[in-house]
Amino acid sequence: MSRQVTILGAGLVGSLLAIILRKRGYEVSLYERRQDMRSLSMSAGKSINLAMSARGWKALELAGLKTEMEPIAIPMYGRYLHQADGQTAFQPYSRKNEAIYSVSRGELNKKLMTLAEDNGVKLHFEHRCTHVDVANNVLQMNHLGTEKTIQADLLFGADGAFSALRNSYTHMDRVNCSQFYLEYGYKELAILPGANGEWLMEKNALHIWPRGKYMMIALPNTDGTFTCTMFMPFEGEVSFSKLKTEQDVHDLFDKQFADAKALMPGLIEDFFTNPTASLITTHIMPWHYKDKSALIGDAAHAIVPFYGQGMNAGFEDCTVLSGLLDKYGEDWATILTEYETKRKPNGDAVASLALANFTEMRDKVADPRFLERKKIEKELGTRYPDRFISVYEMVSFSHIPYNTAIQCIKAQDSLLEQIMDQGDFWANIEQGSFVDSLGKWVAAYYEAVQQLDFGNEAG
Q1: Are residues 135 and 36 in the same domain?
Q2: Which of 48, 269, 307, 392 has the smallest C-beta neighbourhood within 10 Å, fewest atoms?
Q3: How confident is the model at residue 48 (pLDDT cuts 50, 70, 90)?
Q4: Boundary (domain end) residue, out of 326, 343, 359
Q5: Model pTM greater than 0.90?
Q6: How far is CA 179 from CA 138, 161, 279, 406, 444, in A?
Q7: Which stretch of DSSP H or E encloses residue 56?
Q8: Are 18 and 130 in a shared domain?
Q9: Stretch 113-126: mean pLDDT, rounded?
């Protein structure tokens, strides 16, 4: 007889996990501390649009939602850079014209909740878990001011970076747990459509205004708007703490984001109405307790949003767990142990990748040498498709484990520096002797990374 499953958190990962388990015949109860978002008008402020990539699409296919989501997902084929001097440049993500996709977090979450409910998952809203007795799987819940106790059989914590289950794990012996806040916060803003509902910037791109110590990004929405997110230090010379008046905001945008400001008639209202939110990275070990409970998604590995992989990583957790169910059936002790063994290194790796990509987006994309390197990466991928794939393409357009991708960074840095130190790459590749050397360097790189596991993490 299949075990009964309790899931904390009806966000993206919790709802997806509920669907996967319910389709396998499990009785699933899903508890969410918020009201049912499907009955509310969505407010702006803390959403950060999703960037769906290969790992996310794989999980949606597993849930049966891929076909339904594709029409409302906008492909973004690269970064559209808005430099401080007014110059713009487009930087493709992939040598194969592959895209990541801008998706509405709220719309996707509502569809997942409805699909879960349609499949027989029991949804309980406005239930806030305050504590879990981990050894006995007993949950303390507060429902509209009334305390209640729930006995769980098999429990998953999908309740985000400040997970009640994760917090309860920290009270056990021999649990290592850490959280790290960036000194940066973020605020959501909006670029509005034209008079006929048209997009007023390039639709099929992720827009970035890199400014060294701070930046703004914008992702397209199906209604012609762009969701903008300003990332800036909380304190300092240029920071949220310095933007106290409407004139302060006007001055900053007139100087640094003039092209965007012209498209933001609601800038001042958005800036002073929408909250300034924090950015946190968390680590915990272990991720599970015996055959009783486990963490998944942000509850296990909350990361900053700069690689667009938070949702994708959480969805891949679900995909991997599904594959382990195929392999081990009802042996949950083995399933949860192997789930942790497979996913913990990748959770740590994607957290590091996201932090590193913050520096790249904020600062390096304005560096001519960095832009040149990206062009050379594309050329290497075209010339040596079986031997070279950039780390970005590994992360966004494949199911290569994150931990493998991050281990390739040092080798790729060494290869690209060796190539660029020879001078003008585009002039050099016209010379046979350089092409011969290039082939040898790429072969040496390929040999160096062959010991890594490039297996398909998603199964």
Answers
A1: yes
A2: 269
A3: low
A4: 359
A5: yes
A6: 26, 9, 10, 21, 38
A7: helix 54-63
A8: yes
A9: 97
Same domain, 349 and 373: no
The amino acid at 251? D
Q: Exposed (0-12), middle (13-18) or buried (19+): which is 263, by Cβ within 10 Å?
A: buried
Q: Which residue has the tokens 């991720």?
A: 287
The CATH number given to whatever domain includes residue 164 is 3.50.50.60
Helix (H, G, I), strand (E, B) or coil at 30: strand
Over residues 130-169, the pLDDT tens digits come to: 999 999 999 999 999 999 999 999 999 999 999 999 999 9
**CB-neighbour burial class of residue 429 (10 A; exposed 0-12, middle 13-18, buried 19+):** middle
Residue 394 belongs to some domain of the structure? yes
Residue 250 placed within a domain: no
**Per-residue pLDDT at 95:** 85
Judge if 372 and 353 occupy the same domain.
Answer: no
User: Which H or E run includes 253?
Assistant: helix 246-256
SS3 227: strand
Question: How many separate domains does the chain show?
Answer: 2
In a domain, 86, yes or no: no
Residues 377 and 429 in one domain: yes
CB of 30 closer than 8 Å to CB of 116: yes
SS3 category, 242: helix
**The dihedral sign for the CA sequence 24, 126, 106, 93:** negative
Q: What domain range includes position 394?
A: 367-449
